[in-house]
């Protein structure tokens, strides 16, 4: 493909990404994958170049652009070499017309920037949300040790005890260590918040919103495959991915439970008051993951944000019913918005007698929250991780 043809292909894909964001359709990664399958003439270099040409305008534009062309023109306004590719050549974009729509630069839509600022996320903290994420691995201690594992490339040792960092795009899924379950792809921040659970061998632990099981596998390793580990979720498709992953990782203590939304306690009734620890990796806006999914900023609305907060309140109340006296409740969101973190945790403590905050001791992060309802915030800017809020509460004995 010519450089101009790559630009036009990216514009066409951006049109689909924008439409999907407005209608809560497929994520950008899936749209790119579907394009590649439908256009097999595009070689690997073409696909990589087009991927970059798609994501750069997404990171550059704050408000939802009017079109893919308007988004690309926003980049072209700052890059003469890109503007020169709007040359009207075969398969390339038409020449730039005077006065045609050009998307505005920014980090996120204005209403969302206001929410971020109210949560103390401004300047470099906000800009870092649109950066590029590295590739982090967790060495699976059920099968290997970080100090002795041999990998095709040396990784950077991080603060989490089993974390290694590599350049984005490293093809770790082709490594023998990955196929054998000795390593798992997991963001450093995700590994750190799992430490807040302090899961121990022999305990009963519930991963209430397990999804595809990334944190479940980290918990299984921390428990040394001894005890009871229940992974539950309302999403059948995502939960189905956990079985093969657990088998590859050698996590034999994982028990799966599919939940009915709004009736979760029915499937967990036998565990009421029995868990040493309940970990709630609650559904949220995903603001902290924008480095990986930058178009998510265009999917969020004030109404969706309010629904996430309601869900988080519901899950905290549910988790509290499952914890035994003296047990731990760990609340996690991959968001930097206070209304999805400290505010929810404070509301839980205010409404539930017999619970007190017990801030976890993590090697990175800063305290966030007020008074006796503090937790820890991890951020891309300060900690080099995805953005997270994690708080822990203890039940009275």
Keywords:
397 residues, alpha/beta, Alpha-Beta Plaits, Rossmann fold, 9-stranded mixed beta sheet, 4-stranded antiparallel beta sheet
User: Regions with pLDDT < 50 over 5+ consecutive residues?
Assistant: none
Main beta sheet: 9 strands, mixed
Overall CATH class of the largest domain:
Alpha Beta
Q: Tell me the span between the first and last alpha carbons.
A: 67 Å
Number of helices: 17
How would you describe this structure to a colleague?
The chain is α/β, with parallel strands linked by helices and 397 residues long. The chain has 3 domains: 3-106; 135-185, 2-Layer Sandwich (Alpha-Beta Plaits); 190-395, 3-Layer(aba) Sandwich (Rossmann fold), CATH 3.40.50.150. It has 17 helices and 13 strands. The strands form 2 sheets. Strands 5, 6, 7, 8, 9, 10, 11, 12 and 13 form a 9-stranded mixed beta sheet that branches. It has a 4-stranded antiparallel beta sheet with strand order 2-3-1-4. A hairpin with a 6-residue loop joins strand 11 and strand 12 (375-378). Helix 1 (3-23) crosses helix 2 (28-38) and helix 3 crosses helix 4. The longest helix has 21 residues, at 3-23. The termini are far apart. The mean pLDDT is 96.
A few lines on this structure:
With 397 residues, the chain is of the alpha/beta class.
Write the layout of secondary structure elements.
Blueprint lengths: L2 H21 L4 H11 L5 H17 L7 H9 L3 H4 L26 H9 L5 H4 L7 E5 L16 E2 L5 E4 L9 H4 L3 E3 L2 H8 L8 E4 L6 H9 L5 E6 L2 H5 L1 H8 L4 E5 L5 H5 L6 E7 L14 H4 L2 H21 E11 L8 H10 L3 E3 L8 E3 L6 E4 L1 H4 L4 E8 L2
Parallel strand pairs: 5-6, 5-8, 6-7, 8-9
Antiparallel strand pairs: 1-3, 1-4, 2-3, 9-13, 10-13, 11-12, 12-13
